[in-house]
Amino acid sequence: MSSEEEKIENELVEENFTTEENQEEPQAENKENSLEEKYNILNDSYLRLMAEYDNYRKRTLKEKAELIRNGGESVILAVLSVVDNFERAIQSMEAATDVVAVKDGIELIYQQLMTNLKQQGLKQIETDNQDFDTEFHEAITTIPAPDESRKGKIIDTTQKGYILNNKVIRHAKVVVGE
């Protein structure tokens, strides 16, 4: 091979090499741009998601606070009608001469109050002739049982207990037979 042929061959090899380099550079650049574009899209999506979550968290906290603040509204509205009836009863007691009628009126108001509370989910804890149960009762004292069958049973109730929506809110205070 002559020196001229070698020169031509070297030039061809260099051209091929530089052409391959030039072809790889745009591909690498395109790949880099593509990756950067994907990164920007994912980063933007992440930032939007975080902002959305933060707004959701703030909104739910605000709703919880609102529920706590106004949660008793329905109970208060139910009790207001009872208060109105008590006010009427107090006014009528001043001029009333029939004690039995006043007593009946007070009992009706009591029944109205208990009905309203039951509608709100309140139940009275049963204590009459029941076995003592620490889940529902609080023993304030024990006394000797009048007979053998009353041992471990509730003899007397000093304060009624209540359950609100299957949760004990006040234990019944009872006297238990030993």
What does this molecule look like?
By secondary structure, this protein is an alpha+beta fold. The chain folds into three domains: 1-71; 72-120; 124-178, Head domain of nucleotide exchange factor GrpE (Nucleotide Exchange Factor Grpe, Chain A, domain 2, Roll), CATH 2.30.22. Helices cover 63% and strands 16% of the residues. The protein is built from three helices and six strands, in the order H-H-H-E-E-E-E-E-E. Helix 2 packs antiparallel against helix 3. The longest helix is centred in the first third of the chain and has 68 residues, at 3-70. It is elongated. The relative contact order is 0.07. The mean pLDDT is 87.
Q: How many β-strands, per DSSP?
A: 6
Largest sheet: 3 strands, antiparallel
Global geometry: elongated
Average pLDDT, all residues: 87
N-to-C SSE string, H for helix and E for strand: HHHEEEEEE
Q: What integer value in Å does the Rg equal?
A: 42 Å
| Count of the separate structural domains | 3
Q: Structural class from helices and strands?
A: alpha+beta
Helix content: 55-70%
Spans with pLDDT under 50 lasting ≥5 residues?
none
**Distance between the terminal alpha carbons, to the nearest Å?**
124 Å
Approximately how much beta-strand content do the residues carry? 15-25%
As laid out across the biggest beta sheet, the strand order is 1-4-5
Assembly classification:
single chain
Number of helices: 3
